Amino acid sequence: MKHKLLLSALLVGAVCSAHADPLASWNDTAAKKSIEEWVQNATNKDRSTFIPPEKRYVVFDNDGTLWPEAPLTFQLQFAVDEVKRLAPEHPEWKTDPVVTAVLNNDLKAVAESGQKGLMRLLELTHSGITTEEFDQRVSSWMDAKKDPRFGCRYDQLGYQPMRELLDYLRKNGFKTWIVSGGGIDFMRVVSQKMYGIPPEQVIGSFALSDFTLTDNGTELRKNMKGAFYDDATSKPVAIHLFMGQRPVAAFGNSDGDLAMMQYTAANPDYKTFGLLVHHTDGEREYAYDSHPSASGKLIEGLTLAPQKGWTVVDMKQDWKQVFDPKLCPVKN
């Protein structure tokens, strides 16, 4: 009798495991159903909507799509913390307005400095060092720093519903890429660990590096030469450069992602999919669209989405939880 009960329990467990919801952090709303319907149509050989596995390339923005971007993007917060750490060694920085804003904790002024201010902070903290040294600085920062609001490390703040979506797509034969305005070297440090996306499938903003022979071998030293900002209309350019083919699905959260989504939607061979994450949950995360604290403005996208048939995710209504409670036990 005991053996029969054990066998029954094992069978029930196996059945439950086989039918486990791969998108368990999503509410059963139209957004979740649209994802599942598209994937089913794209992977069914008997349907006209079938997409061959070698063409199943899908692209994700990062800031605001896979992890938070408020009140500052994580990379900008890293640059701010690096300026504070390095400033005592560089007294000449104190005459720089954006450095002064950082040292005075005037994050509003930092955000308002725009792309020019951002590039200056990147110049001070992302150049003049080897690629290995930069990777180590990012890793050390990720290990030591915590988000002041959520009290968790930044690498623990990937959106759980989006991480499930990445896994779901990969299990159905899709190749997942990041295409973001964030720095390519910065994201590559954590992309595998956080999202299961290898470094070679990360596309982002970048600058050229200097190669030199050294007594110990070779090194690449980061600088700001040939800087390429991977946002807005630059995203399709970068996709073509790094991927060499047009995606079949695109996931973003701001008007800066629209060119990538339009480029994807214009794929002449397959029925594509587009999704925008709308930040509507000020209690569990942040609520903004037309007036973000730093980046992620979403105005035109909300108008285009119904016209293009794109899915808009209402974070408050469509997600059961925002972060993985095992990694970041905040209110979900």
Helices and strands, with pairings:
Blueprint: H1 2-18, H2 30-43, E1 57-60, H3 74-86, H4 97-103, H5 107-112, H6 114-126, H7 131-144, H8 160-171, E2 175-183, H9 184-188, H10 191-195, E3 202-205, E4 209-214, E5 217-222, H11 234-242, E6 249-252, H12 258-265, E7 273-278, H13 300-308, E8 311-314, H14 315-318
Parallel strand pairs: 1-2, 1-6, 2-3, 6-7, 7-8
Antiparallel strand pairs: 4-5
Helix pairs in contact: 3-6
Task: For this entry, give a set of tags.
332 residues, 14 helices, alpha/beta, six-stranded parallel β-sheet, Rossmann fold, globular, single chain, two-stranded antiparallel ribbon
A few lines on this structure:
With 332 residues, the chain is α/β, with parallel strands linked by helices.
Describe this structure in words.
- The protein is an alpha/beta fold and 332 residues long.
- It folds into 2 domains: 22-69 and 157-318, HAD superfamily/HAD-like (Rossmann fold); 74-144, no CATH class.
- The protein is 41% helix and 13% strand.
- It is built from 14 helices and 8 strands.
- It has a 6-stranded parallel β-sheet with strand order 3-2-1-6-7-8, sandwiched between helices. A two-stranded antiparallel sheet has the order 4-5.
- β6, α12 and β7 form a beta-alpha-beta unit.
- The chain is globular.
CATH architecture of the largest domain: 3-Layer(aba) Sandwich
Biggest beta sheet attributes: 6 strands, parallel
Structural class: alpha/beta
Domains counted in the coordinates: how many? Answer: 2
Number of helices: 14
Distance between the termini: 43 Å
Count of individual beta strands: 8
Examine the coordinates and then state which fold CATH places here, giving the name of the CATH topology of the largest domain. Answer: Rossmann fold
Task: Report strand order across the widest sheet.
Answer: 3-2-1-6-7-8
Instruction: Return Rg in Å.
Output: 22 Å
CATH superfamily of the largest domain: HAD superfamily/HAD-like
